[in-house]
């Protein structure tokens, strides 16, 4: 992580160019054949293979019980794997545990802390746990970057839930890790503060910190992530750059508000992927979001000409594109 958290470096890669730079970026976390099997025989993780690239925001999505927290806990050294290997910045998490763990900052989902400790002491103590020498200048930079400087003398018990969550991030950054895990970072946080937290996470990424987050808020991943991984039933279903995922699995719809409702789609239009909605008042044309023979302007133009030739009249039209949430639900449903 950059030593100066307050100042972004001018040479940092800008988000708009990230889709090209990520492919050439070396992995900072490598997971190979990772399995977690309990004494009961239940497999929480089933031979997980995953690479997290340096300097990206990686969102790990999955329903409750999918294995998200188990995977993070193993990488962070909190849970032992049954099989497989994890390397963090080249360090094996078992044979070189101390060096691997020093690379990682973890922000847990639970808001746990000493209620009567001050913000300053809470964050400073966390740095000491990793054997780091006291560095008041670094702690100040961390607190200022998270808008906590004015709260440094406040006791934890006096802070709001959102401020406590920021303190947890400050604690995780106190020992200057290269990698930050955020487990449900905005759970229980109001919408306005959630967007403030998104800005904080982007700022950390822009300073070179690799950020891995789990979230139930699909819009959080859609807003922030460079790449998205979907885990279900202990298996990685998909890992893809967000933009590519939206192109490959997204769907667009052209919706035509009809002047007169239809009881059925005319036979002359049967070769198009059309459906009726709103009791026949809306004609829906569904096509892939990525360019193909069904999504070119020419094919839509041909469709509109054929609709007119079939005697169907419409008074308005508009398009809609599927969200990441719809893609995620379809992936999990297909994998179930």
Automatic annotation (TrEMBL):
UniProt KW rRNA-binding keyword: no
ABC transporter domain mapped to chain residues: 29-258
Matching InterPro entries: AAA+_ATPase, ABC_transporter-like_ATP-bd, ABC_transporter-like_CS, ABC_transporter_ATP-binding, P-loop_NTPase
Descriptive protein name: ABC transporter ATP-binding protein
Keywords assigned by UniProt, alphabetized: ATP-binding, Nucleotide-binding, Transport
SUPFAM superfamilies (alphabetical): P-loop containing nucleoside triphosphate hydrolases (SSF52540)
Molecular function via GO: ATP binding
PROSITE patterns: ABC_TRANSPORTER_1, ABC_TRANSPORTER_2
Pfam families: ABC_tran
């Amino acid at each position: 992580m950059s030593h100066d958290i307050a100042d972004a470096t001018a040479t940092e890669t800008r988000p708009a160019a990230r889709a090209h730079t990520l492919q050439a970026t070396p992995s900072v976390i490598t997971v190979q054949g990772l399995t977690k099997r309990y004494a009961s025989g239940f497999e929480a993780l089933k031979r997980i293979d995953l690479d997290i690239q340096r300097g990206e925001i990686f969102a790990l999505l999955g329903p409750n019980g999918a294995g998200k927290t188990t995977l993070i806990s193993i990488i962070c050294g909190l849970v032992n794997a049954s099989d497989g290997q994890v390397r963090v910045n080249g360090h094996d998490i078992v044979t070189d545990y101390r060096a691997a763990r020093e690379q990682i900052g973890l922000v847990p989902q639970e808001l746990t802390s000493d209620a009567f400790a001050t913000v300053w002491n809470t964050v400073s103590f966390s740095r000491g746990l990793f054997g780091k020498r006291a560095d008041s200048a670094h702690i100040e930079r961390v607190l200022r970057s998270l808008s906590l400087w004015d709260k440094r003398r406040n006791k934890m018990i006096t802070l709001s839930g959102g401020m406590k969550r920021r303190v947890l991030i400050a604690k995780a950054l106190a020992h200057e890790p290269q990698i930050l895990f955020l487990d449900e970072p905005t759970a229980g946080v109001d919408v306005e503060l959630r967007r403030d937290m998104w800005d904080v996470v982007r700022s950390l990424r822009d300073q070179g910190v690799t950020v891995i987050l789990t979230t139930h808020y699909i819009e959080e991943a859609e807003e922030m992530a460079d790449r998205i991984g979907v885990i279900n039933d202990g298996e990685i279903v998909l890992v893809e750059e967000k933009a590519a995922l939206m192109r490959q699995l997204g769907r667009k719809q052209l919706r035509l508000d009809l002047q007169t409702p239809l009881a059925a789609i005319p036979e002359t239009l049967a070769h198009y992927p059309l459906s009726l909605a709103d009791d026949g008042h809306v004609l829906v044309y569904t096509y892939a979001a990525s360019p193909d023979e069904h999504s070119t302007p020419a094919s839509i133009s041909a469709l509109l000409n054929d609709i007119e030739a079939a005697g169907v009249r419409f008074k308005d039209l508009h398009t809609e594109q599927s969200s990441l949430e719809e893609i995620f639900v379809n992936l999990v449903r297909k994998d179930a």
